Amino acid sequence: MKEKKDKMPSFLDKVSSVIKDTKRWIFHGAQSVTKEEFMRRARICNECPHFIHKSNTCGICGCWMEVKAKWKTSECPKRKWGNEADSKFYKSEKN
Question: What is the pTM of this model?
Answer without folding.
Answer: 0.74
